[in-house]
Amino acid sequence: MRRFTPSLTALLAFEAAARHMNFTKAAEDLSVTQSGISRQISNLEALLGVKLFERVGSRLILTEIAKSYLNEISSGLDQIEQASVNCVRGQSLEAALMICAHPTLASRWLTPRLHDFLKDRPETILDFVTTTKNIDFTETRIDAAILRGRGAWTATRSQELFREELVVVGAPHAWQGYIPDQELDFDTLPTLQNASRPDLWLTWLHGAGLGHKGAIRGPRFPHSELLISAAKSGLGLAVVPLLYVETELANNELVLPFGGPVPTADSYWLVQPEQRAEMPAAHEFALWVKDRARRFRLNAAKLRGGNS
């Protein structure tokens, strides 16, 4: 028997119109005319024998039956789209290696190194996601995450990669050759603040064993990426994790006016859900990232003048 299935064109027109609640915007979305959307909706209503849209004044609203219909066909359209993407890829997205990290860690430490991992594994499909929140590893498809913390994630294998170390950085033209006192005067030092981690200056001061006077204030930035950009432009001094400024320090775009890094109580960890840790691609990634972490520890040791 022939399936009782509306045309895909009609379903896409209905979904777009319901999403925008506007036939004109739906037409723009699908690159068709507004009359084409109206015609497809009318055809669909005739086939189903129900009214899908009503007008209240100038507003377009969904009927109750249309709301239920939309929920059900949307999941079907999503599945069709995903199946089509999988066909083009030649592999299901479910087979992709899903990696998660905090955004700045991902952009400044992990992704610059990923070429080495992928060049020897051209068949690997990498699905990269970022997070700024806690992850429930019992409710995720993530294969491996690199997270800052103290190793307390349930239902996971957590392996420490390296300690978090903080540095104070500033633009070379402002701080080259600067000699700090044992007590920093924040009434005279131009400082920058990280709104997402407001305790960074105090954490660094404690680790460096330095005193201070004056209020710690200055422009506040929502995350480390903007903070680093502000420091490079000469707006002031910023406290950032060492791993975020490897390139700038190597290129002398930033300097360390107060010396080498100091550790915090946190570390960066490779975190893997127990049920996914032994999957071949996840296992290979774990071995690779631990090797890159070892190399990073060696480079960090040079700044400390010690050994990893």
On the 0 to 100 scale, the average pLDDT is: 88
**SSE order, one letter for each helix or strand:** HHHEEHEHHEEEHEEHEEHEHEH
Count of the separate structural domains: 3
Name given to the CATH homologous superfamily of the largest domain: Periplasmic binding protein-like II
- Within the largest sheet, what's the order of strands? 4-3-5-12-6-11
Low-confidence stretches: none
Helical element count? 11
Helix content: 40-55%
What is the number of E strands?
A: 12
Give the strand content: 15-25%
Shape: elongated
Would you summarize the structure shown here?
The protein has 308 residues and is of the alpha/beta class.
Question: Helices, strands, pairings?
Answer:
Blueprint: H1 8-20, H2 23-30, H3 34-48, E1 53-56, E2 59-62, H4 64-89, E3 97-101, H5 103-110, H6 114-119, E4 126-130, E5 144-149, E6 156-169, H7 172-175, E7 183-185, E8 193-194, H8 200-208, E9 211-213, E10 220-221, H9 224-232, E11 238-241, H10 246-250, E12 262-273, H11 280-304
Parallel strand pairs: 3-4, 3-5, 7-9, 8-10
Antiparallel strand pairs: 1-2, 5-12, 6-11, 6-12
